[in-house]
Amino acid sequence: MNEKITLKEKIGYGFGDFASSMFWKIFSVYLLYYYTDIFGISAAVVGTMFLITRIWDTALDPIIGIISDMTNTKWGKFRPYLLWVALPFGIIGVLTFVTPDLDITGKIIYAYVTYTLMMMIYSAINVPYASLMGVMTSDIKDRTSLSTFRFIFAFAGSILVLATAEPLVAWFANAEIVADIKHGWTMTMVVYAIIAVVLFYLTFAWTRERISPPKAQKTSIKTDLKHLAANKPWFILLGAGVCTLIFNSLRDGSAIYYFKYYFSAQEAFKVPLFNVSINYSTLYLVLGQAANIVGVVLAKPISDKIGKKHTFLWAMLFATALSCVFYAFSENDLVLIFSFQFLISVCAGSIFPLLWSMYADIADYSEWKTGRRATGLIFSSSSMSQKLGWTLGGALTGWLLAIYGFEANVAQSIETQTGIRMMLSFIPAIGAILSAVFIFFYKLDDALMISITNELEDRRREN
């Protein structure tokens, strides 16, 4: 019997990604900038650090998935991690943005240690959180609805960060000097950490796990890994997810540099009450997140009509074309820059609820085909694709800046400015078109999944 998911539970589940996305967005948009322009590490060093730490973290995700599949408590398999890991998540997040007075070697070591710990903790809470959707309901339309709620809240968390990060840093700093700006970043992260911890606790309290593995199933990591290795739809979706995140990560990570070093004017307007400036970069990024929400909302009605696969495919094709056109815009084309940011972000936003709903479908497909359910392992792969795409996108951003001759806090050459423009247009477009190619070969359409779901429901009733 598939119990209907309540509105409160959907909101509770959404809170979890609101919390995660605040940190994800601050890392994907501001962390490279923070390390190069505030902390004082070169872009090439940061790019390499992102690759090394995130590759390890990406490999950790399946391990967390396996451990959570083996977890059995009165709260279920996945919800307990929201309770146990929320506070460490907040603490390490703050420490990542603390800048001790060290020499350059000490700074690099501190950055490696804190960032590695942060990514490990992120995996420890986010993999079980993602897996939770796979055991809350088996209804494929309910899953898309649940995923839609999740990503509306996710992008709302991102909007909060993008709208408030720079003003909060300026407010806490109280002056445009380096020491105060460092303090401003630390205190801003304290605010976000408190919000994240509270929201994770609410997700734990307001959600329930309803789907369990078959009663006769015994834990077998070897068998589950063997089945995963033979799961073709999983590989296809993994590739599509990695390429989509490369696309997003490059665009997010380059935006701050684009407005700081390509635009002659930074400030869009002032907020007199708080005596802080709102920059074009803030407006650009907030608009992108608002457009992402539009994409999330549109994903369900469009996918109900043409299917998840075709919605995903067309969104990535449109994103590719629009990104290529973006290169032609100059500083004087503000309306076009912001308009295309909106359209590209609508396409990008529509992908995420589809992607995670499709991973839930793959968990059902695997159980239908093999008789075993490994929800945590399969959903950890979605987190793994997210991390791997983010890893490659983040590393590429740092390396490309170095290749194009970027130096922090100085006027950039024409060649460097051209490179930064490429990093918001043609280069991420490569990720988008590769994502479309992968999803073209995905075979689990909605009609097949309805048949699989019905058969699994019959098996569960018999057991």
Q: How does this model look, in words?
A:
The protein is mainly α. It has a single domain, classed as Growth Hormone, Chain: A (Up-down Bundle). The chain is 79% helix and 2% strand. The chain has 15 helices and 2 strands. A two-stranded antiparallel ribbon has the order 1-2. α1 packs parallel to α5, α5 packs antiparallel against α9 and α11 runs antiparallel to α12. The longest helix has 37 residues. The protein is globular and about 70 Å long. The two termini are 12 Å apart. The mean pLDDT is 88.
Q: Level of helix content?
A: over 70%
Q: Note the total helix count.
A: 15
Low-confidence stretches: none
Number of strands: 2
Major beta sheet summary: 2 strands, antiparallel
Report strand order across the widest sheet: 1-2
What's the Cα radius of gyration? Answer: 22 Å
Which CATH class applies here? Answer: Mainly Alpha
Q: What is the annotated CATH architecture?
A: Up-down Bundle
Order of helices and strands: HHHHHHHHEEHHHHHHH
- CATH H level: which superfamily? MFS general substrate transporter like domains
Can you tell me the CATH topology? Growth Hormone, Chain: A
Secondary structural class: mainly alpha
Please tag this protein with its features:
Growth Hormone, Chain: A; mainly alpha; 79% helix; 463 residues; globular; two-stranded antiparallel ribbon
Describe the secondary structure blueprint for this structure.
Layout: H1 7-39, H2 43-70, H3 79-96, H4 104-136, H5 140-173, H6 178-206, H7 221-229, H8 232-261, E1 267-271, E2 276-279, H9 280-306, H10 308-326, H11 334-370, H12 375-403, H13 414-422, H14 426-440, H15 446-462
Antiparallel strand pairs: 1-2
